[in-house]
């Protein structure tokens, strides 16, 4: 191990960049749908050894001194995000005649940009670097900080945060309900990087003890929580989730909306599955309704006739607001609407966090003059909603809707005990086909249920549609590209172990403890050197 570490430390130039790139790409195998988290015990020790050798001359100033470390992290991040996000390009091939030209910009450009976060992580870590276990703590702090910033900087895109690698199954998901993603990201990197100590043979016992304690706590807490007696449900709801599997090439084709609507209606109106009651809530995916309700009042009438007493439909729609279709002030929203058993729209919630370049064009005036336009989405550019609020169902149960990738943001999906009793996620992942993208998206939605201690209802156009309980178990699901509907009886009982604000504090405290440990080791090494 010492010989291997020595060779890695001495790498230079393109060889160092290549190993960093490959180490990052390898780490993606720890994410869904592969869930082979053991690879991180290879990728992160390699990163530690590369950083051991990434030294600059102190006399060159702090920027040049940290540049080699930043480069190592950047190449690691580029490999990680390129291997983990290549499937984004599939969305541009749906309308290849119009958008195939943008394929390299999406597939390569997004990883190029996101890699700066990991370059920042390794540069911060190198500031606190030492020759012992302190450098492992420094790396954990650097990545914890970078992943936290990735949650909100430049509109945010915390996809495939490192911490998800430590949570492939419900047993290993429970810790996030206490630490939040901020804490689990830092803890995961610390444990994954500890095998790097085997090369230097310093602090091996301490590192082994810490790894054993943290892994035991992670697994043990999961076991205790899953084994604990579930509180009797105070209420329950019968839900039907519809997955129409509509081909995107037909999604906005003006000749087929009636057929699409008929498919949705047929799946919604069928008799309940054996052993299930008539659903109280029916859930359709994002933008599933292929027309504007204002132009098709007959559709609302048909829905009112289809829905029985006390039933509610929550459907993804494109909602219009403003003047006539030719009016420049007319706005369109990616929304969900709640339709009651009389065929009336009882409530609506607009998407607040839009996808840049997908649902709107940032700096539209400037980029528009350059001939650029939004790359995917639908029939129009969307406006962002002002706020999100729960939808109250008959019987008083409240559901909080999140549209598409809104569900990947932990702080956005912070469901307080007084806010809602169900999380609803509607999406259309058909843009990405049967690639790792939909599986990664579902995993992140699954973790939101565990974090907040409430069930998750998820309707996706072509999958993965599912019902997830508050502990991360999948009660029922529809696979990718399956067409159908599932009926699930959903008990409502659990709540979050700690509040969302306390999770945030806990995560930041974990991150700062790593920073303090790294700083202490760094100072002690400097004092010894003098």
From TrEMBL:
GO molecular function terms listed in the Swiss-Prot or TrEMBL record: N-acyltransferase activity
Main location per the UniProt record: membrane
Keywords, in A-Z order: Acyltransferase, Cell membrane, Lipoprotein, Membrane, Transferase, Transmembrane, Transmembrane helix
CN hydrolase domain sequence ranges: 242-492
Coiled-coil annotated spans: none
GO cellular component, one term: plasma membrane
Gene3D superfamilies the record matches: Carbon-nitrogen hydrolase
Gene Ontology process terms (BP): lipoprotein biosynthetic process
Source taxon at top rank: Bacteria
Subcellular localization: Cell membrane
Transmembrane segments: 12-30, 36-54, 66-89, 101-129, 136-159, 171-194, 206-224, 505-523
Pathway assigned in UniProt: Protein modification; lipoprotein biosynthesis (N-acyl transfer)
Bilayer topology term: Multi-pass membrane protein
InterPro entries: Apolipo_AcylTrfase (IPR004563), C-N_Hydrolase (IPR003010), C-N_Hydrolase_sf (IPR036526), LNT_N (IPR045378)
EC number assigned by the record: 2.3.1.269
Family from the record: Belongs to the CN hydrolase family. Apolipoprotein N-acyltransferase subfamily.
Task performed by this protein: Catalyzes the phospholipid dependent N-acylation of the N-terminal cysteine of apolipoprotein, the last step in lipoprotein maturation.
Protein name per the record: Apolipoprotein N-acyltransferase
